[in-house]
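[step 3/7] fold_predict: job queued, chain A
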Amino acid sequence: MLIVIEAPGKLKKIREYTGNRVFATVGHYRDLPDKDLGVDLDRLEPIFVPKEARPDLIKNLVQQAKDDDVIIASDPDREGYAIGMMVWQDIKDVARSVKRAEFREITSKAVKEAISKAVQMDKTNQKLYDAFLGRRVGDRLIGYMLSPVAARQLGKEKTPWSVGRVQSPAIRLVVEREREIAAFVPGKYYLVGIESEKHGRKFKAWHQKGKIKEKTEAEELITRLSNSRTAKVLAVEHKNRQEMPKPPFETASLQMAASSQLSIAPEHCMKLAQDLYSAGLISYHRTDSVRIAPDFIEELRKRIGTDFGTDYLPPVPNEHKSKDSQADAHEGIRPTKVHTIAESAAIVARESLTAEHTKLYELIAKRTMASQMAQAVFATTMAILECSGERFKANGRVMLFDGFRKLWAAEDENSDTPTKEDGQEGDQRMPDLQVNDILNKLRDLLEEKTTKAPPRYTEASLVDKLKKLGIGRPSTYAAIMKGITQRQYVLIKSRKLHATQRGERLLQWLEKNTPWLIDYEATKKMEEYLDRIEAGDIKVHWKKLAERILYRVGQAGGSIVKSKESSVPGLSEKQLAVIERYGEEVVKKAVEERDILLCKKWLDEHFAKRQSQK
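[step 4/7] structure written:
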């Protein structure tokens, strides 16, 4: 049996677990050509050509699959399925049988179970491939037909201009934030409060009016307050509040946490996660799901009870649900084995990985275990005080039980999220107050504050914003960050995203020429349309989406990038000359019909025959 996978990093493990031959495609081995549009605009069909870097790969794949049973185990997502479909198309006529298996973790048990449940490739959900075609063709039409227009109108620069379906809204977010910061005019405001005490415990209370714009008004309040040496308690409210642990990671939240807590950029985070997955240490890392398998949860609960005690174990497992119910067919990102957190470094070291891998793995292990720990419990107090006829509000919070916070103390992956409003001493320890208590007032408080401009995005907060807007998918966030920085639309300084003049110029062009491309709701609907295709909705088709995009691109003056090397996309002039001189009528007709796959197949056979004759 032959098992076909994507990443060569998994070869050794899968050979060891199965005893079978394993072939790695190294990702997409067929793709749209780099120098041409690669889409037949009459039929809206993509022209996928073999990657030039590995010219013999397809021939080797076909030879190894001949007269054998083949398991296609490319990655378990839309892109992985597309690679699997291309493998199937190449080998289905020579292999004895072709089945599809999905490895969601690289462990002996998971790999063997997936193989035992493998399904005939032609019985799988081929709508996944249709959704891939819709995304790939749509993105190519936008990128290859609009980028030249932008380049002509914006002027030639050392770094080429580019326009992208998901990249463009991301640029809009960063540039508009830059505009807000530039337009921001700081202003003053004032907070008035009192500090009181009971039984020696001091606490602060702030005027219920909140922010006071005029300094004279604040000073008048302070003058009135100075006449009183006591404050009266008008109302007290005590509550115990429970805080639920966060769910396990999915792709976006992993990238956010890695960025904010480990200073690891999204693209690098995904590379590290790929290594951990290939080494069999974590489950598949491109997922929208936060669900964890019940048997794994049971193992987690046993470990929590042993390591932390029964107080840290909730009576029943915590249930975390994904926003998208379809996502829960998969799992969140978790370790493949349950162990103590202290063992993390040794486990990663056994796979000869780096210190960065260890940090990311430990982050995943902590988040996974914390997701099934007991809630944290806080005692909260809210009191209303009166002084000199003015009312003040005091808030206090004390942790009664740390629960999951013993392991996971981070408030949020997105470091831009504020923890409290001005004038709210949320975590101060309050005395035991009773209604009608007369308290000693220790001092009056007058604080001058300056309004702050909205914060620049970090990579973590931009990913968070894109996710909330429904723009992009787990596999695209890292590529978005890489694209907008490499093309110098955005610079990263002290972990903050700064829009450049190039970014501003491109957004101005987009606002004028393609407002639909930077419309958040329109971009979200395109993603949802692709999801509907994948789900098998008979009312949608990938070519309808491509037609709509082509129409929009045409309205904006989109044009086709022509290769300088060939008059036929996907074939060089040298290849065309070989076909013209040696080719039979059938392959020459294939050139006219732009059947690139048949042309490439003939060329492979022609050169192989000539090589054998030498």
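[step 5/7] annotate
The domain at 132-182+456-555 is CATH 1.10.460.10 (Topoisomerase I; domain 2).
The chain has a mean pLDDT of 91.
exit 0
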